[in-house]
Design goal:
- The complex is a heterodimer.
- Helix content of chain A is about 25%, strand content about 15%.
- Chain A starts with 15 loop residues before the first strand and ends in a 7-residue tail after the last strand.
- Chain B is of the alpha+beta class.
- Chain B has one domain: Alpha-Beta Plaits.
- In chain B, about 20% of the residues lie in helices and about 15% in strands.
- Chain B is built from 7 helices and 11 strands.
- In chain B, the strands form 5 sheets. A 3-stranded mixed sheet of chain B has the order 10-1-11, covered by helices on one side.
- Chain B is elongated.
- Classes of the chains: A alpha/beta, B alpha+beta.
Amino acid sequence: MSAEPILNLSPRVSDEIRRTTCYMCACRCGIDVHMKDGAVRHIEGNRDHPVNRGVLCAKGSAGVMQHLSPARLRAPLRRVGPRGSGEFEEISWEEALETAVSWLRPLRETAPERFAFFTGRDQSQSFTGWWAQAFGTPNWAAHGGFCSVNMAAAGVYTMGGSFWEFGQPDWERTKLLLIFGVAEDHDSNPIKIGIGKLKSRGARVIGVNPVRTGYNAVADDWLGITPGTDGLLILALVHELLRTGRIDLDYLSRWTDAGFLVDEAEGAGHGLILRDGEGRPLVIDRRTGQPAPWDVPGVRPDLAATHQGARTVMQHLAERYLRPEHAPEAVAGRCGIAAERIRALAAELARVAFDEAITLDQPWTDFRGERHATMTGRPVAVHAMRGISAHSNGFQTCRALHMLQILLGSVEVPGGFRFKPPYPKPATAHPRPHGDARPGQPLDGPHLGYPQGPADLLVDADGNPKRIDKAFSWENPLSAHGLMQMVIPNAHAGDPYPIDTLMLYMANMAWNSSMNTGAVIGMLTETGADGEYVIPRIICADAYASETVAYADLVLPDTTYLERHDCISLLDRPICEADALADAIRWPVVGPERPGHAGVRPFQSVLLELGHRLGLPGMVAEGGGPAYRDYADYMVRHERRPGIGPLAGWRGDGSESGRGAPNPGQLARYVENGGFWHEDIPVAARFFKPWNAEYQDWAVARGLCDAPQPYAFSLYLEPLRRFQLAAEGHGDRQPPDHLRDRIIQAFDPLPIWYPPFEETRIDPAGYPLHAVTQRPMAMYHSWGSQNVWLRQIHGQNPLYLPGEVWEAQGFAPGDWAYVTSAHGRIRVPVARMDALNPHTVWTWNAIGKRRGAWALSPDAPEAVRGFLLNHLIGELLPGQDGGRIANADPVTGQAAWFDLRVRVEKAPPAVASEPALPPMASPVGQGPETVRFGGEGR
Amino acid sequence: MTALPADTPRKLGLVIDLDICVGCHACVVSCKEWNSQGHGAPLVDTDAYGAAPEGTFLNRVHSYEVVPQDGPAQLVHFPRSCLHCENAPCVTVCPTGASYKRAEDGIVLVNEDACIGCGLCAWACPYGARELDGVERVMKKCTLCIDRIHNETLPEPDRVPACVRSCPTGARHFGDFADPESHVSRLVAERGGYDLMPGMGTKPVNKYLPPRPKDRPLLAAPAEEVAGDAVGFLGWLDRALARL
């Protein structure tokens, strides 16, 4: 044997490590960016970071390829060809800024609502919202309307917090995790860390999902439910828990509205909660048999009480869900899950919750002043996501799931589901929406909020929507995140009014983020009688040459995430954990170099500059100069309330947390600490947070709220009842007649199930299959498939067909199919999958690309064989005869992506998916033939 | 022909837990990133933004459907890389001595200076664990991140392969299989870790932990009915509240 070569086993890895925050998806992991010779060489997870604790997903490790992507924009662009052609000329920043100002200034002075500003997956919504409020347009929101607002709104309204970054399973203690409709998620790495941890200690994971991939593939049990029927399953579980008396009565009576009395007298108060003179909900105190406010010391709410004909929420709830229509046998066929399996699941949830209860020897004091020696936990945790959310019955389904959690007593207890600060925060503590535009003036308040009744709607005296997306109108009253998916269709239709300028940030609305993509593209390019575009001006801010960039008249090029400042703020969507308050920054670990071009600028800094030039309040200093040098300066010096700014760490002299004067040295402290700030919640304050006096006081001290705000979970959602009352004819704010029945049906104050709208408006026999998408773990929220490494993992997307469909139609590998919905037809490659609900087809989300986009060659597989299901999904409900009601949840406006019904037929052999839209020119050319990363200098 | 060491005092390798691998490809990309600038030539991507992108990867994840007789179909995610076999056929087949197994720790490596890119080793490997880089024209394979695991410039916890460092679910474990008390040896003993294709006689060092049985009956006994309707429930509720 020859001698082994001598190896250098200890090469120097990097010159320096710069710690910042990832932006390859919405997870916000801490990353160690290794620098060598001034360039980014290697990215790995930050071991000290509370989100990812050192691990990193595929996207995170591919970040260097996103940073170096050939699709990066290089200079501001002015369109020179027709919209969508991709023909631009590069212009200077001064020209770009002055062009934008010349468009926006007259709008602000005359009709601020004619400027609409919507953002996609940006993480600076508290900033962009503040800017839009200063401008004065009511037309601002982010992408929640087409994402998962049902989950967010149902969580906030029902229990003062939701899943994703606002809450998490108690990964350390839970013994049973139930996941509903979860493919990939915002909490990407924490879920993976958590599932690995709890499975490794023998805890059970039960997955409810039509498709068995990813997390559902490692789940111990898989319930391959039929899409849109999750609510039926959940209510059958509730039926079983009630039938067998397996509910947490002590929890329900102390912490929820189960003991509240519902007024049953006919009239304008019918169905509302009985309250005392101070507006406090009344219960019957079991000690006295008399009415008492729910929150007084010592009260023992009697869930079985009746008072002057008013019964408790608990009784209404039991009456509703013990009905035979909610029995497992009654729903099994529709759900595709056997009745005995549903019964067994209910029994298992109860067994783990009650027979394997956890008790922590941790004394605590509740808001009524009662001292508890221990904390009892129900170790059943639930997580849910878009699969149950993206239906027209999604809000009520999400509500039902929270009701199930609450009946088990498993929210904010050891082993259950836990909130992350700034949650818990009840809907009543959020702002109400605002939408009054006044020329030259800021908006009358924050855009988004949580309406409590018809009085909070944004409609004019005639009932017409004030917002371009019709958010907070009678069509979608509780649209807490807006309806971004309706902005272009509504603006095109001039319904409720036309707009002049649309500004989009990080949102691919001419492609995968719109329903009915082909038609939306047509809306962007349609001209009126005067030859002008129907939507006259479009400004697009993005870092990459996306499909949507090609439809802009003016492009403001953004930086990559390694070249910019950002704050992941407590005012927005922070990185807190259930045990800790935390926020984070991004900072430029490299400068934004685009040699030979005008260069790129962080969009937030550009907005501040535009705000200064437009003279927006808060953005002009006393001497007339800019109030903030750039976004970094804003992050440090901006105060939302005195002492409360975008970043909570190292305030004042550097020793203050949450509240404190701006600290000029703050960013340096963040950088020094690895890009984040983190403070543990006191141990006695870590559970029962909505009712825990120590938590409430701590939250006030840290500036999360200005006074303790204990509240009861809402099994019965009174705001919904207020809308029903209006639809029944009560009150002076009345819905239009054509929406009355729909409001009465959908706004049930107790969770209900109704069939997804699409299948009730088409002939379901003609479209027998459900069609859904899933987010691939290696691409989720990093859709830019110009990433050379990730595109080798997901470069094309077949439509997966269940074995039954595959065999019935004689499909073979390599085949193509026509997929037809009531809305349109596409041609796609197909593949067989058996771990799939037999009535469902699915594909990966957003893999398909338009020819010419993203610096890919026009024959890239993403463009040739990849496809979007979006073409089959109407943005409007089918069968309206000219009506324009959104294909969305009637409560929240959540885009009903997954209501889609299709039929699949074998197509002749083909080479390309259809529709095959014409290619666009690339404003940045095409990527290089070969990538030899790490080979430089060898 | 190249000789294998008779035995190695350490047998460094991976144990991969198929029960918790969610198929996220984190290991695939972190491996690609580290090893593009790690030991030996970079891992090049050709036709990078074109019709047929093809790059060299030392670790890939495949997903297989399994359809049991008596239960619903399952999906198994299966990460695949060099298993650092004790009887490595890729080494013995190498005509130049470029492929070798380190006597010290058992890691199978390629001496790129001696590699002629003939591809015999890739043919000999029954696991498909080697890839010839299309541009560099040398054989690439998992090095177990030899430039990390022994790297004295790295903090101690980082001296693990990049795939182990990044794996979000903790499905990948690195250690010495020659030590029966090591973390990886204990995992294999406790969880029934197994060799891939043992019939090939390759004696892989890397092991896989099998997925736990799925879709088993749930543990709970059927619960007793306390109330069939709202009236019955009210009575039960009253009695139950009295007991609180």
